[in-house]
Automatic annotation (TrEMBL):
Keywords: Amino-acid biosynthesis, ATP-binding, Cytoplasm, Histidine biosynthesis, Hydrolase, Ligase, Methionine biosynthesis, Multifunctional enzyme, NADP, Nucleotide-binding, One-carbon metabolism, Oxidoreductase, Purine biosynthesis. Its EC number is 1.5.1.5, 3.5.4.9, 6.3.4.3. PROSITE patterns: FTHFS_1, THF_DHG_CYH_1, THF_DHG_CYH_2. This is C-1-tetrahydrofolate synthase, cytoplasmic. Homodimer. In the C-terminal section; belongs to the formate--tetrahydrofolate ligase family. In the N-terminal section; belongs to the tetrahydrofolate dehydrogenase/cyclohydrolase family.
Length: 933
């Protein structure tokens, strides 16, 4: 008998051909994708270099991008672990191998290193988790390459493994032990032999399948082999051979010339198992990339829902929130398809999401875009945030659709003032609600610091210009450092704006130096205030600069609340970091004495602002009570600014939910304020197309609009709000009708969510529903998500799904090329129902100056009370034909909108007689926050 030679070269070539086709198919599913293998080598052993060159060549042949990462011989174990951690975290790397042996002058634990490679990227199959899976018959992980290649070669002989007696010589971690496990799970009866096995040659003669990997040249003789056996030789050993130019040749652990006379099949050395090891490595890498692709294109997240333990009547919001243990945020991150290097965890319940996600998913089709707004609310709010959260809980936890809620971060002003928490309510909340309502990840504090740094720099510049002559001022602005004088990049930008095309500070003329150095800020025309994230009425008007060190240069100014800062609006409207930087640089803080704008860039502070805001660019990932994802980002004032969460958060969410998913984002207050600004400012800035508007209403608010008594926080509700009163409700329905009409003007389907309260009767709820449907609502549904969580908003979820499937022909309310006054009129007439606009002479003068500077091309951000469709908060219902008076106007150049002021809108709220402060405490025994909501 002469054995058939089992050529690993031929089988490997066949496998590589198949892998090449698989890579091509992957790239059709994900254009631009290329499987990536990282080969990490420490030192430069020549034998390792030979193996690496083989792997690189095979990878190139298949279409795998193999990166050879060379680390020096003095690389320490810690340094190697750090590098592997970076590769583990990168979504661009699909497979990782560490070339063994590690050639370092420092001691390195090889087992620690192989276990440091993520099991999901361990294409060598040497991580203990993958080895353990294989030992238990779970081959879903990665199988070591040489053993996998051996099994493949045996199968290619046509000999069935099942029922055969297999003998494995060698018990190494890389070959012997794993091949024995694989053969066992192929239903062979396996015997493992090693250097201490007695009567080894007798044992080997019992083998139908003999696998040898013992590391001794030609140990196994022909007489050791059972006639007709399949022999797989894993050894590769150099022995002296004077006939070779190298003086040696390679042989296996089996005496090949003898074995070929006895066995039925035998592998040669070289050319047998060696090429298969490389082929199996390539197969594992392609498999890893395929798993990445499957995860990327999977239509639904593998999200584990948190079960609610619903009590009736529901306990307090904080009691409900604390009754639910959130998922570890790392689990949610993995469920959403995010990678470790794309998030920064803040404890176990929240994490920042990197903007790198947008780059990785740039080709991913986004989902459906939904805005949640309300009718004109009572001071108690109508549950807009609660409805937003109930909707996404219903969509994801109950309808199995990917969905995100995108919310603003609450200011500590309302938290400690009147409103209390803003995490939703009942069984539709963000958790942990204490974190959500307090510091969260520090974004508002970053905005506060950046805003106040700009204010400090402005006042310092005013002081230094008032106390220095031109020459010394210029010299201090452009000092010599180690004998060299040069402009910083931000100073070069100022020179460019001034039309001074010089880069050498010494070449500027005296006139150019003065022009560059003096901003000449008019202290009566300063628009930039300091901010604090609290309600503090005594900061509404203050005097600064009273210290003797300021030499009498005092001025009156004021503080705003932090969320009213233009920097907050800029963060919310920036499409990416470059856009944010450009907007920050263009913020106008004052006018100079010639009436020209002075910007943050003129003050040299743009870069410093970027540094302070670096982490605030990223939205914060949290979860609902049912474990569905929430992105929290920015919190611009809704009646002064545009009152929406960030464009960046929405865009990240749109990519993560994928084509068939949903992103629901809130807009402050009613359709007249929040929704209109969402459409005309936010959607325009982000170039986004909304698919549906959800407008939240309550019986309580509609009764108020029908003439019901005042609703005040902290006071019991009047009897008309807790008893059925269809007549009063009917009179107030006109307010709902106006908000439906407002939504339809943008050509999007309007879904009315009737947020059910405990005192509402079925007759009242039905009256609202029937009215909404008769007055143009796409759907009107009664929602009970406060009491039931997502299960109470199923009908709302179904209505939203249906609305998003209808053709949308979204349009803005006005084109940008209209004049400022025409845009104001369009909003006032169409959204509010006004019949006339009045302007003060000062406003008309400002409009003229804004137009001259090109600000008339900005959208309009009306600053108006949220408590009425008019400018008077006491007027309820849906009045028409009234006069709207514009008593002031300013421009936020960085944010990119013009702000007409309707009435007195304070940018610094005050604390009421009895603020929420009285109820808030820290339990010193348990550490729990009490009384927050």
């Amino acid at each position: 008998m002469v054995a058939q030679v089992v050529s690993g070269l031929e089988v490997a070539r066949s496998i590589q051909d198949d892998l090449r086709k698989q890579v091509s198919e992957m790239r059709k599913k994900v254009p631009g994708l290329k499987p990536r293998l990282a080969i990490v080598q420490v030192g430069g052993r020549e034998d390792s270099n030979v193996y690496i060159r083989m792997k690189l060549k095979a990878a190139e042949n298949i279409g795998i991008h193999a990166e050879h990462i060379k680390l020096p011989r003095d690389c320490t174990e810690a340094e190697l672990l750090i590098r592997l951690g970076e590769l583990n975290e990168s979504p661009d790397v699909h497979g990782i191998i560490v070339q063994m042996p590690v050639d370092s002058i420092h001691p390195i634990d090889n087992h620690l290193i192989t276990d440091a490679v993520s099991p999901h990227k361990d294409v060598d199959g040497l991580n203990t988790l993958n080895e353990g899976r294989a030992a238990l018959g779970d081959l879903s992980g990665f199988v070591p390459c040489t053993p996998a290649g051996c099994v493949e070669l045996i199968k290619r002989t046509g000999v069935s493994i099942s029922g055969k007696r297999a003998v494995v010589l060698g018990r190494s971690r890389i070959v012997g032990t794993p091949i024995s496990e694989l053969l066992k799970w192929e239903n062979a009866t396996v015997t493992i032999c090693h250097s201490k096995t007695a009567n080894l040659n007798e044992v080997t003669k019992t083998a139908d399948i003999l696998v040898v990997g013992i590391g001794k040249p030609e140990l196994v003789r022909g007489s050791w082999i059972k006639p007709g056996a399949v022999v797989i030789d894993c050894g590769i050993n150099p022995i002296p051979d004077a006939t070779k130019s190298s003086g040696q040749r390679l042989v296996g652990d089996v005496a090949y010339a003898e074995a070929i006379q006895v066995a039925s099949h035998v592998t040669p050395v070289p050319g047998g198992v060696g090429p298969m090891t490389v082929a199996m490595l390539m197969r594992n890498t392609v498999t890893a990339a395929q798993r990445y692709v499957e995860r990327l294109i999977a239509p639904v997240w593998p999200l584990k829902v948190l079960r609610l333990n619903i009590l009736s009547p529901p306990p307090s919001d904080i009691a409900i929130a604390r009754s639910q243990k959130p998922k570890d945020i790392g689990i949610l991150v993995d469920e959403l398809g995010l990678y470790p290097n794309e998030i920064s965890q803040y404890g176990n319940t929240k994490a920042k999401v990197s903007l790198k996600v947008l780059d990785r998913l740039k080709d991913q089709q986004g989902g459906k875009y939904i805005v949640v707004a309300g009718i004109t609310p009572t001071p108690l709010g109508e549950g807009k945030s609660t409805t937003l959260l109930g909707l996404v809980q219903a969509l994801t936890a109950h309808r199995g659709r990917n969905s995100f809620a995108c919310m603003r971060q609450p200011s500590q002003g309302p938290t400690f003032g009147v409103k209390g928490g803003a995490a939703g309510g009942g069984y539709s909340q963000v958790i942990p609600m204490e974190d959500f309502n307090l510091h969260l990840t520090g974004d508002i504090h970053a905005v506060t610091a950046a805003n106040n740094l700009l204010a400090a720099q402005m006042d310092a510049r005013i002081f230094h210009e008032l106390t220095q002559k031109d020459g010394p001022l210029y010299d201090r602005l452009v000092p010599k450092i180690k004998g060299v004088r040069k402009f910083s990049p931000i100073q070069l930008r100022r020179l460019n704006r001034l039309g001074i095309n010089k880069t050498d500070p010494d070449l500027l003329t005296p006139e150019e130096r003065t022009k560059f150095a003096r901003l000449d800020i008019d202290t009566t025309k300063i628009m930039w205030n300091r901010v604090v994230d609290l309600n503090d009425r005594y900061l509404r008007k203050i005097t600064i600069g009273q210290s003797p060190t300021e030499k009498g240069f005092s001025r009156e100014t004021s503080f705003d609340i932090s969320v009213a800062s233009e920097i907050m609006a800029v963060l919310a409207l920036g499409k990416d970091i470059e856009d944010i930087k450009d907007r920050l640089s263009n913020m106008v803080v004052a006018l100079d004495k010639r009436g020209n704008p002075v910007t943050a860039d003129d003050l040299g502070v743009t870069g410093a602002l970027m540094v302070l805001l670096k982490d605030a660019f990223e939205p914060t990932l949290m979860q609902t009570l049912e474990g569905t994802p929430v992105l929290v980002h920015t919190g611009p004032f809704a009646n002064i600014a545009h009152g929406c969460s960030s464009i960046i958060a929405d865009k990240i969410a749109m990519k993560l939910v994928k084509e068939n998913g949903f992103v629901a984002t809130e807009a402050g207050f009613g359709s007249d304020i929040g929704m209109e600004k969402f459409f005309d400012i936010k959607c325009r800035a982000g170039d986004d197309q909304p698919h549906c508007a959800v407008i939240v209403c309550t019986v309580r608010a509609l009764k108020m609009h029908g003439g019901g008594p005042t609703v005040s926080p902290g006071l019991p509700l009047h009897q008309v709000y807790v008893e059925e009163n269809l007549d009063l409700l009917n009179k107030g329905l006109c307010n709902l009708g106006k908000h439906i009409s407002n939504g339809k003007k943008f050509n999007v389907p309007v879904v009315i969510a009737i947020n059910k309260h405990g005192n509402d009767t079925q007759a009242e709820l039905n009256m609202v529903k029937e009215y909404a449907l008769k007055n143009g609502a796409f759907r009107a549904v009664i929602c009970d998500h406060w009491a039931k969580g997502g299960a109470g908003a199923l009908e709302l979820a179904d209505a939203v799904i249906e609305a998003c499937e209808t053709p949308s022909n979204f349009n803005y309310l006005y084109p940008l090329d209209l004049s400022i006054q025409d845009k104001i009129q369009k909003i006032a007439f169409e959204m509010y129902g006004a019949g006339k606009i009045e302007y003060t002479d000062d406003v008309l003068d400002k409009i003229k100056r804004f137009t001259e500077k090109g600000y008339d091309k900005f959208p309009i951000c009306m600053a108006k009370t949220s408590n009425s469709l008019t400018g008077d908060p006491t007027i309820k219902g849906a009045p028409t034909g009234f006069t709207l008076r514009i008593n002031d106007i300013f421009v936020s150049v960085g944010a990119g909108f013009v702000v007409p002021m309707v009435g007195e809108i304070s940018k610094m709220p005050g604390l009421p007689t009895r603020p929420s402060i009285y109820d808030i405490d820290l339990n010193t025994t348990t550490g729990d926050i009490e009384g927050l909501f």
